[in-house]
Each structure stands twice: as C-alpha cells, then as structure tokens.
Write the structure tokens for this entry.
Amino acid sequence: MKKDDLPAGKAGENLLDDYSSDYAQDVSINNEEAGNGDENEKPKTVDIKRYKDIGGLTLRRLDWGLWYVEHKKILQRILIGFLILVSGASWSYTIYGFAYYYTRGIAEDELMAKQIIEAGHLNHEAILMSMPKDLVYDQTKILKANEDRYDFYARVMNPNDRHSVLIEYYFLTSTGETEHAKEFILPGETKYFLSLSNELESRPVNAQLRLADVNWNRIDRHEISDWELFKDKRIDFTINDAQFVPANQSGLSDKINLNHLEFTAKNNSAYNYWNVDFVILLYSGPNVVGINKYSIEEFMSGEEREAAMSWPGVIGRVSKVEIIPEIDITRSDIYIKHEGGIGEEK
C-alpha cells in the first residue's frame, strides 16, 4: 500500500499506524521462525586428517614444515653453538699437546731413544745367550767286530741345560760312509753315537762323525720348571748282576767267536715305557774294547727284567761292563697309557 492511496485527515493517519504495526509483527514472526530453524540444526565439522593432496604432500609433512619454519632460527643458533664448542675443544687439545711436547715431550723422546739403543744391545746379547751351544764330541773310534766287520762310535756331549737335540748323523771313513742314523741327546747328557757291524773290504784308516741334520728343542720352563728333577723321576733304572763271558769261554759255538752278556734291569720309576734302549760298553782297563746296544720292550713301572745277549768277535779280557739306559723322556709317545694318564703311577 502506498501512502498516496490513504484517505486524508485523521482517518488516514490511523490507518497507516495500523498497517505499520501489522507489518512489524509479520517481520518479527518470520525472524523467530528463521532463528528457531537454525537452533535445531547441528553445525557441520571438517576432519582435517582426511585431507589428501593430489601432489603427494601429507599433513605430517605440513606439520613438520610449519614447525621447522617456526623454530628455524633457534635450530641455527644451536648448531652454531655446537660447532663453536667442538672447535674450542679441538684447539684447546692442540695447544695443550704442543705445550706438553715442548716442555716435557722432547726430553722424554730423547730418553726413550737412548733406552731403545741400550735395550737393543742387551736383547741381542740375551738372544745370543739363549741360543744353544755347539755339541762337544770326541774323536771317532774304530773297533773290529768280526773279521771284515767294524764298529764306529763317538762320544757326544750336549753342554746345554735347557736344550735337547735330535741329530741325523753318519760316519765318514777312508772307504766310504756309513748309513745315516738318528739319535737324541737330552740337556746336559753325554751319548754314544754308534754304527755297528759295518762290512768293509779293509780296515779303515780313520773315521769322522758327520752331522747331517741338527734340530734343537728348548725345554719350556712353564711345562718343566726343574729339568733335573723331571729327568731323575723318569730315568731311574737299576742294573744288577752284569756278567760278561768272552768267546773263548762261552762255549756257544766252535766255529764262530760268540761273546755272551747277561744282566738284570729294574724300572724304579713310576712310568711305563714302550721301549728302553741300553748302550753297553766293555772296558779293558781305561779303553773301550766292545760296544753294543740292547732293547727292552714294554718295560713297566717296578718291573725287573733279565737280559741276555751275544755278539761275535774276539774281544779279549774285559775288566768292566757299563750299561747306560737311553730314553727320550721329552716325547709323549714313549709312555704306555693307562688309567690316571700318561706317566702317572699305577
């Protein structure tokens, strides 16, 4: 309704007021209805975790990037401080090292160099002292065994108290050389190297002992602290009733000169042996007139064994018989194993 359409006068004004009042009520009612409708409806929420970027940028990367941008300056300060700390420590150590070397290191180096020179000289002397001394051996002797057969022997001494030796040897004569043989010598021991019953066309004028190979073995003090005690406990044999009968009295043969020897050997040690050799020397006064070797197998601890042997040749009068046991006690395979272990008492 337009204002020009209203009647004039008082009646027109009253009609306009009524119209305005009705219009205001309608607007108020419509606003209330509209407000009531918004209150009944719940507001919509957005789940940001469901965000997906078609370029592959994840929400976690966005968070990390945001955090880095916010803390970039702080991180730079921390890195710079760490580098300054490392640099300061390095320079401090370097300065300290130069100062220490200048004040004390030079003198210590000079003293060390002097000690090395002196120690080297002493070590060289110690090495020379620890090396085994040469064997000492007498002139080779020749004995006629029987007709065209000859025996050669030489006495050899090992002057070392902590070295044993294994030797390959032979005798060189004017008519050739004997077969090679092997022999051992324990520390401080004297042995007889033998070559028996060599058939030769004529009596050799002289003979020389030749060593083809020499292998030294140092006795370990951690394994054997007292060598003499170790040896005395293992090489403990008693020789009794040694009787030698020369060929002209033995009556063993009318055609061949056969000498005869009998003796009794007892193993007083606490050890059982697979084999024990005995070197037999026959003396006429101070001279050796006959030499031979005899073996006893499986010689048990406490056992007493009778031995009898003969060998051809005209030996003559014998004033003394010497019988020497020989066994390489440094080898483990010479002992007969039994309960309790090798070399222990039964």
